């Protein structure tokens, strides 16, 4: 199956700093990637759709200036949490389908802790 | 916006018992996917259902898509300890993005 990686797997940062999370499709090209947020024992909440070469599409209630998404190549999307605060602490996970609308391959996730 | 609810939220079963989780949408769906997430892991794709009334089987797992394409179910026959995890449905109404259901956490007691 297709492989999606994420880096870093864990990050601890101080309040007010910015954190960049990378999502890579290792053996396929992904024109679209999705970013989710998951709180403990809860479902995955879709934050935004990352589109290669164009602006990301954000879900209602997700601040685009807070969560910057860049999809500069067919294998890499990045999520930058700007001016992080403790309430941004969460599990961030990306996914990519081989073909639009088909099964999604998930990265292993990034656990962000803001102190 | 689109909402996808799953019931039950939690289910504890004895090993060997059957298990079913139900997924219900407020809108008609184009298709539905099912994923399994082990504790501490990431979601892993199980199946995609597209046609009204479709039934698909994978060994002990049976997936069903409702006739009205507003609900779906996942049934596991004779659960095993390896079935432990959270089962999510993910639905789309026509776009390429999927909305995940609330999930059902399954615990299997040996």
In words, what does this structure look like?
The complex is a heterodimer of chains A (115) and B (110). With 115 residues, chain A is mainly β. Chain A contains no helices and 11 strands. In chain A, the strands form 2 sheets. In chain A, strands 2, 4, 5, 6, 9, 10 and 11 form a 7-stranded mixed beta sheet that branches. A 4-stranded antiparallel beta sheet of chain A has the order 1-3-8-7, with no helix packed on it. Chain A is globular. With 110 residues, chain B is mostly beta strands. In chain B, strands 2, 4, 5, 9, 10 and 11 form a 6-stranded mixed beta sheet that branches. Chain B has a 5-stranded antiparallel beta sheet with strand order 1-3-8-7-6, with no helix packed on it. In chain B, strand 4 and strand 5 (44-49) form a beta hairpin. The mean pLDDT of chain B is 94. Classes of the chains: A mainly beta (115), B mainly beta (110). The interface between A and B is medium-sized, with 24 and 22 residues.
Sum this structure up briefly.
The complex is a heterodimer of chains A (115) and B (110). Chain A is an all-beta fold and 115 residues long.
Mean pLDDT of chain B comes to: 94
- End-to-end Cα distance of chain B: 40 Å
How many beta-strand elements of chain B? 11
Class computed from helices, strands and strand pairing of chain A: mainly beta
Biggest sheet record of chain B: 6 strands, mixed
Shape of chain B: globular
Strand content of chain A: over 45%
- One letter per element, helices H and strands E, the order of chain A comes to EEEEEEEEEEE
What is the arithmetic mean of pLDDT of chain A?
Answer: 94
Helix share bin of chain A: under 10%
- What is the chain-wise order of helices and strands of chain B? EEEEEEEEEEE
Work out the helix count of chain A.
Answer: 0
Tell me the major beta sheet of chain A: 7 strands, mixed
Largest interface comes to: A-B, 24 and 22 residues
Number of strands of chain A: 11
Distance between the termini of chain A: 37 Å
Q: Could you estimate the helical fraction of the residues of chain B in percent?
A: under 10%
Specify the oligomeric state. heterodimer
Shape of chain A: globular
Q: Radius of gyration of chain B, rounded?
A: 13 Å
The total count of helices of chain B amounts to 0
